[in-house]
Specification:
With 467 residues, the chain is mostly helical. It has helices spanning 7-25, 41-71, 75-192, 197-332, 338-360, 378-385, 389-392, 395-419, 423-453. The chain has a domain at 123-299: Methyl-accepting chemotaxis protein (Helix Hairpins, Orthogonal Bundle), CATH 1.10.287.950. Helices cover 85% and strands 0% of the residues. Helix 2 (41-71) crosses helix 5 and helix 3 (75-192) packs antiparallel against helix 4.
Length: 467
């Protein structure tokens, strides 16, 4: 066994040693077999070097693991996007409201323009009515004066009629006396006999003339009385007409004062409408400027949303690069302990949970095959590889398995909802996945505590960076 080595043995060991080194250089850090070496010390030392290298890498793997907990935590990105989304929604609503306000102000401005025009027309009509009423009062006053003049003339005519009556009375008295004298003359003529016949004829004619005069006087009296009655009726009517005209004139004057008062009010209203129109015109300009500013803010929020999304995408890409490095080192260049693995499994599903959110907001597009088989992820494979019944029969192991599967269940539900275009349903499923993760995190902590009680205590100490 410890005999002298031949040159051939040395060369073969050298060749095998170089081959093993080439595998390491190529990134294959699998265990080197001692088969073929004339001296197994070479393979043992190489394996010790690989183990030391892997142990040295544990610190980097776990530091990358902790880094992924920070980088993979998209809660601040989610909160930022949620806040920007809410603010953008508010700005959009404000923008829509400002447009409605602008349209309303324009409508009010147009309506006030119509009101102003109508007020001008009403003011002009009121002023014209005032002038027409003044003219009407003047005409009524002139008519009243003319009627009063006519009434005065009628009264004068009435007095003349009375004078005629007096004259007729005199004529009647003269006729009566003439008739009496004629009668006396006839009597005296009869006494005179033949000598008085001629005088009797004259007396008879005088009596007849007196009788006719009396009858004519009676007719005159009759007609004068009728005329007097008609004149009295006419005078009464004219007095009533004059009274009505005066009364109407007073009412017209009151109406004129009311119209003049209304005219003053219409002037005040017109001035107020003019001021309101000017104010609304200025408000319309201000509203337009406000609407333009809100539109600019809305556009800015649109750009801010895009920038936040791009920032989230950029952070996601950085996280994926680091996570890929972490996973490669875990599989190929590390020798992590069971405690380390459980911590890695915890961060794996923290990242998975946030990748579900990334899928919703289009930072990345997951495949359903990345979510629907919990047995193929690191912890799933680890759990299936366990043969220690102390582990597999423990309540902690079973709770961890159930919590793990629940994360994948809700992750799949979110994926299907997003695939169907139902973002709200996808977010609801994500929230369930989020809650399930923290149950899973608690189950990991319980599992780590249990593993320590059965001897799995080794854990890589991570270098802590201090400020």
């Amino acid at each position: 066994m410890f005999g002298r080595k031949t040159t051939q043995d040395v060369n073969r060991d050298k060749e095998l040693l170089l081959q093993a080194m080439d595998k390491m250089i190529a990134g294959d850090f699998s265990e080197v077999s001692s088969e073929g070496f004339s001296d197994p010390i070479y393979s043992e030392k190489l394996n010790q070097i690989v183990a030391a290298y892997k142990r040295a890498n544990n610190n980097y793997i776990m530091r990358l693991n902790e880094a992924m907990e920070s980088i993979g935590d998209n809660s601040y990105v989610k909160n930022m996007l949620d806040q920007v989304s809410l603010q953008q929604e508010s700005i959009t609503n404000m923008n829509d409201s400002s447009k409605v306000l602008k349209d309303s102000i324009n409508n009010i401005s147009q309506a006030m323009g119509d009101i102003r025009d109508n007020t001008h027309d009403m003011l002009h009509t009121s002023q014209s009515s005032s002038v027409n009423m003044s003219d009407s009062i003047r005409v009524v006053n002139e008519s009243s004066q003319k009627i009063a003049d006519i009434n005065g003339q009628v009264q004068a005519f009435h007095e003349k009629i009375n004078k005629i009556g007096e004259i007729v009375d005199i004529v009647k008295k003269v006729a009566s006396q003439s008739n009496l004298l004629a009668l006396n003359a006839s009597i005296e003529a009869a006494r005179a006999g033949e000598a008085g016949k001629g005088f009797a004829v004259v007396a008879d004619q005088v009596r007849q003339l007196s009788s006719n005069t009396a009858e004519s006087a009676e007719d005159i009296v009759k007609y004068v009385n009728e005329l007097k009655g008609d004149i009295e009726v006419l005078a009464t009517s004219m007095e009533e007409t004059t009274s009505k005209l005066s009364e109407g004139n007073e009412k017209v004057e009151i109406s004129l004062r009311d119209i003049e008062h209304m005219n003053e009010q219409m002037t005040a209203i017109n001035d107020a409408v003019e001021r309101i129109f000017d104010d609304i015109d200025r408000q319309s300009e201000t509203t337009k400027e406000f609407n333009d500013q809100v539109s600019n803010i809305a556009d800015t929020y649109g750009m801010l949303t895009n920038e936040c999304t791009e920032t989230g995408t950029h952070i996601f890409k950085i996280g994926r690069y680091i996570d890929t490095c972490r996973s490669d080192m875990f599989r190929e260049a590390g020798a992590v302990t069971t405690q380390d693995m459980l911590r890695i499994f915890e961060i794996d599903h923290f990242i998975l949970m946030w990748r579900v959110y990334n899928n919703i907001v289009d930072f990345e597009r997951l495949k359903i095959t990345q979510l629907n088989n919990p047995d193929t992820c690191k912890i799933g494979k680890w759990m299936h590889s366990q043969t220690d019944t102390r582990i597999t029969t423990s309540s902690q192991f079973k709770k961890l398995d159930a919590a793990h599967r629940l994360i994948h269940k809700y992750a799949c539900e979110s994926w299907y909802a997003k695939d169907e275009g139902d973002i709200n349903k996808a977010l609801e499923a994500f929230q369930k996945c989020y809650d399930a993760y923290y149950e899973y995190k608690k189950a990991i902590a319980d599992m780590k505590s249990y593993m320590r009680t059965i001897g799995y205590t080794d854990e890589t100490k991570i270098v802590i960076f201090r400020n």
